[in-house]
Design goal:
Helix content: 40-55%
Strand order of the largest sheet: 4-3-5-6-7
Number of strands: 7
Largest sheet: 5 strands, mixed
Shape: elongated
Order of helices and strands: HHHHEEHEHEHEHEHE
Structural class: alpha/beta
Distance between the termini: 61 Å
Length: about 200
């Protein structure tokens, strides 16, 4: 059955759908495909339902852009978070990785990407205007720029720095420990935490 399935058009379509996910190659997609086919009907239905629930119930915070079931996320509404420091990240998932370090206790701002002219992504396509608006009330005293240490991430950090430098706000950048060319997603908890603790003033 499995040898036949490998060349079956429907199974190939299933493999291609999993291969389109980040970090999933053809070999992993094939294993996932067979695992799905072996699942009990009730288990499969529950698995599909969890995906559908996540897709329909989860959205993005109206303030920071992070993942949430409510209009405003629990980080933005929390009275225990530091309100004077704002961490700027590229994607909503970056909040998850930083939170795992237990080293940061302020608020967040998600850009939804990084400046990349080759991909047609400029400042206008990012949530930079919303960032400036959040800084205009002078409640924020420090902006921690935690974009990825890539060419695009550095270009975005430089742009943000030049934009908000005239404001009376301390600007820091995520520092030691993150591999150049890497991303927050693949940094271990200790390394990412160390980078946050040792941030430098720009």
């Amino acid at each position: 059955m499995e040898e036949w399935a490998l060349s079956d058009p429907q199974f190939q379509k299933l493999i291609q759908s999993f291969s389109s996910l980040p970090g999933i190659g053809k070999k992993s997609a094939t294993r996932i495909g067979f695992h799905i086919l072996r699942m009990e009907p009730s288990q499969f239905s529950a698995w599909v339902q969890s995906i559908e629930d996540a897709k329909t119930k989860l959205g993005f915070c109206e303030i920071c852009g992070g993942l949430t079931e409510d209009p405003i996320c629990n980080i933005c509404t929390s009275e225990k978070r530091e309100t004077k420091i704002l961490c700027v990240v590229e994607q909503p998932e970056d909040i998850f990785f930083i939170e795992n370090t237990k080293e940061y206790h302020g608020k967040y701002h998600v850009l939804n990407g990084a400046i990349s002219p080759l991909d047609g992504i400029g400042p206008e396509q990012l949530r930079i205007r919303q960032l400036v608006e959040r800084l205009s009330d002078n409640q924020i005293t420090e902006v921690l720029i935690a974009t990825n240490p890539t060419l695009e991430g550095d270009a975005t950090a430089s742009y943000i720095f030049s934009l908000i430098k005239p404001m009376e706000v301390k600007i820091t950048r995520i520092a030691h420990g993150i591999t150049i060319g890497g991303t927050l997603e693949y940094s271990d908890q200790y390394t990412l935490g160390k980078a946050i603790k040792s941030r430098l003033t720009l």
